[in-house]
């Protein structure tokens, strides 16, 4: 069993530096040490591990197989230590600077914009740039720090933190239900006015299921189709028909009685796959303190389950 008692962080840093530079003398020059001191540290490391780590010649040094293996682990250890040191430095730091956020238009209006004054008051050194669009955004090309996105999460090039689940309701106004009757099953919707969202991919399909059964999709029509969710929501409130929308959008109308949830024994969605509301940010070794601060703030304000579900 090899002992590691004589290994310290400085010896690992010097060992990795020698591999990177390929020379004892160059590392010695950069570290303001003598070449013999650097060589002695590496020799002590080899003695502690009881194995040869480097091939030495007059022109350069190169790693043995054991040296390559140690280097791989040493780089990971040193990276983690550097990250820990940075986190400790930031622990008492106040987030500041420009943070660029991109959010869907309606969700941004409903659930991001109302919290901006409190976010700014909490982090006065933070400069917030909020862009709202439903278009595809490449965070690297468009220089975005944080994306708020809703739907089926499948982008492996991004890290994600879930802010909430997207839950849907089938709803209509009391006036519409009094006039047209209340549907009891999805098949009943064929005789109702269904207000359907139509985006770039075409008209949205509505999916229904009971308990743990399979989802079934329905393509429905009504007196109004639109690419604007607010327009369709207002049309439903005005009695023009039924809508399927997420609770974050129509939760207020349901609580206030302007809309009524129907067919409660069925689950309803616009996709057979689970949909989430998530904060996305580019993959990397760590997240900046300002991005972490914004995400943590939103997680706290939204709650679990999110406040619009209550």
UniProtKB/TrEMBL annotation:
<dbReference type="InterPro" id="IPR000847">
    <property type="entry name" value="LysR_HTH_N"/>
</dbReference>
<dbReference type="InterPro" id="IPR005119">
    <property type="entry name" value="LysR_subst-bd"/>
</dbReference>
<feature type="domain" description="HTH lysR-type">
    <location>
        <begin position="7"/>
        <end position="64"/>
    </location>
</feature>
<dbReference type="Pfam" id="PF03466">
    <property type="entry name" value="LysR_substrate"/>
</dbReference>
<keyword id="KW-0804">Transcription</keyword>
<dbReference type="InterPro" id="IPR058163">
    <property type="entry name" value="LysR-type_TF_proteobact-type"/>
</dbReference>
<keyword id="KW-0238">DNA-binding</keyword>
<keyword id="KW-0805">Transcription regulation</keyword>
<dbReference type="InterPro" id="IPR036390">
    <property type="entry name" value="WH_DNA-bd_sf"/>
</dbReference>
<dbReference type="InterPro" id="IPR036388">
    <property type="entry name" value="WH-like_DNA-bd_sf"/>
</dbReference>
<protein>
    <submittedName>
        <fullName>LysR family transcriptional regulator</fullName>
    </submittedName>
</protein>
<dbReference type="Pfam" id="PF00126">
    <property type="entry name" value="HTH_1"/>
</dbReference>
<comment type="similarity">
    <text>Belongs to the LysR transcriptional regulatory family.</text>
</comment>
């Amino acid at each position: 069993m090899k002992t590691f008692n004589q290994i310290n962080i400085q010896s690992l840093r010097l060992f990795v530096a020698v591999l990177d530079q390929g020379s004892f003398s160059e590392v010695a020059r950069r570290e303001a040490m003598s070449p013999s001191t650097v060589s002695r540290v590496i020799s002590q490391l080899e003695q502690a591990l009881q194995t040869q780590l480097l091939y030495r010649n007059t022109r350069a040094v190169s790693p043995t197989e054991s040296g390559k293996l140690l280097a791989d682990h040493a780089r990971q250890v040193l990276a983690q230590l550097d990250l820990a040191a940075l986190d400790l430095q930031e622990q008492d730091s106040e987030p500041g600077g420009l943070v660029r956020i991109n959010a869907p238009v309606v969700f941004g209006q409903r659930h991001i914009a109302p919290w901006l004054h409190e976010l700014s008051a909490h982090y006065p050194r933070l400069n917030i740039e909020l862009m709202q669009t439903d278009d595809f955004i490449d965070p690297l090309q468009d220089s975005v720090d944080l994306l708020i996105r809703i739907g089926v999460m499948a982008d492996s090039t991004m890290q994600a933190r879930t802010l909430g689940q997207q839950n849907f309701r089938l709803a209509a106004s009391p006036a519409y239900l009094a006039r047209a009757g209340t549907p009891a099953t999805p098949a009943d919707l064929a005789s109702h006015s269904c207000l359907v969202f139509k985006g770039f991919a075409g008209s949205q399909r509505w999916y229904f299921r009971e308990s743990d059964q399979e989802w079934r999709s329905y393509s429905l029509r009504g007196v109004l189709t639109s690419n604007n969710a607010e327009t369709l929501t207002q049309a439903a409130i005005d009695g023009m028909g039924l809508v399927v929308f997420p609770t974050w959008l129509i939760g207020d109308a349901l609580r206030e009685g302007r809309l009524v949830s129907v067919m409660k024994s069925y689950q309803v969605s616009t996709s057979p796959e689970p949909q989430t509301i998530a904060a996305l940010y580019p993959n990397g070794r760590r997240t900046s303190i300002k991005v972490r601060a914004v995400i943590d703030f939103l997680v706290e304000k939204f709650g679990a389950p999110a406040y619009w579900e209550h």
